[in-house]
């Protein structure tokens, strides 16, 4: 269980915060965009639905006020004023390109009660020893704390050295399994695995496939041309990617050496569609 002591790697989180996962909202600088692509690297589970949702959001006119605010704050070039334009704007072609190397996989999210606010853990400011808060009497004014297999009326080293940890502080130092086993179950008893399962919800691949298809169909209904690329999927996820595309001719199932050919074909088709509109 020692492997449970560390929190997940930042790149394995459902919503990673590392710089190489930031979204470039609007840019017309090819060099900047290429650098951002070069900074990306694959890790963690696959959530095609989240990627498609962001792509559609940045093509939808309802996002225009956000872009306007970002222009005012210097985060987006002024040349993007008025974007995204309305879906029925003449002389405008909207295209969404979706690329994935596989199928949607399970997504795990902490329940709201474990995401923010105070945790039941108090930590000694000097030596880091922890006490677990638990209302054993089920009253509003009689609380006890766990340490050395005993219940006390104060946390370890009393209030002058004790600090209560927030949930984000807890997860910054350990995994959910570690907390369920070494903190909660050790303090109040009960099945640690039940505590572990009770703290999060899982979204299944089939649910995420349905979400992906729904978002793609909304995009197509709005007149957006959707291209999808399955890169070395070996058949995994191809059904979802094919359904997402605007048609069979808009889905590219390729190997890595063919990726440039796929994007070149998409660029040619976009230019062709622009000329015909």
Descriptive notes:
Helix content is 36%, strand content 18%. The longest helix has 18 residues, at 259-276. The chain starts with 29 loop residues before the first helix and ends with a helix. The mean pLDDT is 86. With 277 residues, it is of the alpha+beta class. The protein is built from 10 helices and 10 strands. The strands form 3 sheets. Strands 6-5-4-3-7 form a 5-stranded antiparallel sheet. Strand 9 (225-231), helix 9 (238-244) and strand 10 form a beta-alpha-beta unit.
Describe the secondary-structure layout.
Elements: H1 30-39, H2 48-57, H3 64-72, E1 95-100, E2 107-110, E3 118-124, E4 130-134, E5 144-147, E6 150-152, H4 158-161, E7 162-166, H5 167-171, H6 176-188, H7 192-198, E8 200-203, H8 205-221, E9 225-231, H9 238-244, E10 251-254, H10 259-276
Parallel strand pairs: 1-9, 9-10
Antiparallel strand pairs: 2-8, 3-4, 3-7, 4-5, 5-6
Helix pairs in contact: 2-8, 6-7, 8-9
What is the CA-based Rg, rounded? Answer: 25 Å
Q: What is the H/E string?
A: HHHEEEEEEHEHHHEHEHEH
Helix proportion range:
25-40%
Q: Major β-sheet, in short?
A: 5 strands, antiparallel
**Mean pLDDT, all residues:** 86
Stretches where pLDDT falls below 50 for ≥5 residues? none
Q: List the total number of helices.
A: 10
Q: Number of DSSP strands? A: 10
Q: Given the helix and strand composition, which structural class is it?
A: alpha+beta
Q: Which outline best applies?
A: elongated
């Amino acid at each position: 269980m020692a492997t449970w002591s560390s929190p997940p790697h930042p790149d394995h989180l459902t919503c990673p915060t590392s710089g190489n996962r930031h979204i470039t909202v609007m840019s017309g600088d090819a060099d900047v965009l290429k650098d951002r692509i070069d900074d990306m690297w694959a890790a963690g589970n696959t959530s095609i639905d989240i990627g498609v949702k962001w792509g559609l959001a940045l093509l939808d006119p309802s996002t225009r006020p956000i872009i306007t605010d970002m222009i005012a704050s210097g985060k987006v070039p002024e040349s993007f004023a008025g974007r995204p334009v309305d879906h029925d704007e003449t002389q405008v072609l909207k295209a969404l390109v979706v690329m994935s190397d596989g199928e949607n996989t399970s997504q795990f999210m902490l329940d709201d009660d474990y995401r923010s606010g105070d945790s039941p853990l108090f930590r000694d400011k000097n030596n880091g020893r922890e006490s677990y808060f638990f209302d054993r009497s089920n009253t509003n004014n009689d609380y006890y704390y766990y340490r050395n297999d005993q219940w006390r009326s104060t946390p370890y080293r009393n209030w002058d050295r004790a600090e209560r940890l927030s949930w984000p502080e807890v997860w910054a130092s350990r995994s959910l399994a570690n907390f369920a086993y070494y903190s909660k179950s050790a303090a109040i008893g009960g099945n640690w695995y039940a505590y572990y399962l009770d703290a999060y919800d899982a979204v299944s691949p089939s649910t995420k496939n349905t979400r992906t298809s729904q978002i793609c169909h909304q995009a197509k209904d709005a007149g957006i041309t959707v291209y999808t690329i399955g890169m070395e999927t070996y058949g995994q996820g191809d059904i979802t990617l094919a359904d997402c595309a605007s048609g069979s001719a808009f889905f590219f199932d390729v190997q890595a050496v063919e990726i440039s050919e796929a994007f070149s074909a998409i660029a040619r088709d976009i230019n062709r569609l622009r000329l015909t509109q």
